[in-house]
């Protein structure tokens, strides 16, 4: 049902399966946004890292995936901040132009 967002839904009924797996990292990381990001769907990133950096230990892979996701979140946050700043500048210019006409 939440396939449209691209983020896998939290595990619904298979709590016995998730408790049997040992995750060295927490299942969620704080992104500075309103909701934490679920990192259980990190298989593609993990497989990519295994392919391009063979010989990485599980700890190294976990750190790589966490850093990769945090970097993406930081870049998105910075981009949004820049865009919002630009929009504020445009809004101020428009407001000044409207006030100048009256």
Concise overview:
59% of the residues lie in helices and 4% in strands.
Describe this structure in words.
It is a single chain. A hairpin with a 7-residue loop joins β1 (about 30) and β2. This protein has helices spanning about 15-20, 45-50, 60-100; strands spanning about 30, 35-40. It has one domain. By secondary structure, the chain is mostly helical.
Key descriptive features of the protein:
two-stranded antiparallel ribbon; 3 helices; mainly alpha; disordered N terminus; 102 residues; 4% strand; single chain
Rg, alpha carbons: 21 Å
Number of self-contained structural domains: 1
Largest sheet: 2 strands, antiparallel
Number of DSSP helical runs = 3
Strand order of the largest sheet: 1-2
Report the structural category.
mainly alpha
Strand percentage:
under 5%
Q: Give a count of the beta strands, DSSP E runs of length 2 or more.
A: 2
- Low-pLDDT stretches: 1-23
Order of helices and strands: HEEHH
Quote the average pLDDT.
74
How far apart the termini lie comes to 51 Å
Biased composition (Low complexity): 1-24
Region (Disordered): 1-38
């Amino acid at each position: 049902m939440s396939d449209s967002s691209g983020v896998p839904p939290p595990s619904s009924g298979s709590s016995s399966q998730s408790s049997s797996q040992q995750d060295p990292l927490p299942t969620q990381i704080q992104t500075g946004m309103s909701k934490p990001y679920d990192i259980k769907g990190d298989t593609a990133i993990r497989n990519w890292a295994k392919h391009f950096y063979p010989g990485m230990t599980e700890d190294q892979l976990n750190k790589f995936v966490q850093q990769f996701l945090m970097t993406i979140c930081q870049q998105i946050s910075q981009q949004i901040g820049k865009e919002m700043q630009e929009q504020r500048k445009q809004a101020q210019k428009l407001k000044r132009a409207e006030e100048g006409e009256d």
